[in-house]
Amino acid sequence: MQCSKDLDFYMSFFLSGMGILFLVKQLTIPAGYGKHIENNTKQGYIMIPAKYAWFIQELPSFLVPLLLILVSRQQNVFSCMMLLLMFCGHYFQRTFIYSAFTRGRPSPINIVIMAASFCTFNGFLQGHCMVYIATYPDEWHMDIRFASGVLIFYLGMGINIHSDHILRNLRKPSEVTYKIPKGGMFNYVSGANFLGEIVEWFGYAIATWSLPAFAFAFFTLCSIGPRAYHHHR
Predict the structure, then answer these.
(1) Given this model, what pLDDT does residue 41 score?
(2) Structure pTM?
(3) For the residues of 178-214, what is the DSSP string, one character each?
């Protein structure tokens, strides 16, 4: 099951390249889901209700790292139990809580498949790095990178969850129309939910101090940063 350290490097390089491609592609046209679903120019796709779409596409990011932990015989306890579980905690919330309460629009099946494929790829990359590759000194929990990264991570997660709560409560249970949110970080930025997630993953990257985590943070910035811009417009 264990692969070489080079694998993490090449997968991280590929992930960063994907981020640049997403950035270029979305400079003019955002990804065709949610309020921008009309930008999905191809017709005839099966539409999946938002609750099921989010559950399906986010689940691999939760399951794959846990499976790597279960099948591993490594004794890398700190990285597995402290850092990787931060990653899994985010996706537990997105898979089982966010998906259950979301009131968004249905997503095209092609978007769901691409998102699930990405989450499988990234879940393996982050999990493999933490389980098999990353090593930390015993006093890592006292390091400023770990302490500041964890603080930034949970600050971003709090902004993300609170912003999603505000967005959900803009609509009645039967509504899927979009309204301008107010309160929380929405008083300062248009895409507070996106900002929270970007902050979250840069915090994770600092806490883990690993190339795969920084590649994922960069990808997140490139993929949902432009979406926040289009939301603002």
Answers:
(1) 47
(2) 0.88
(3) -----SGGGGT-TTHHHHHHHHHHHHHHHHHT-HHHH
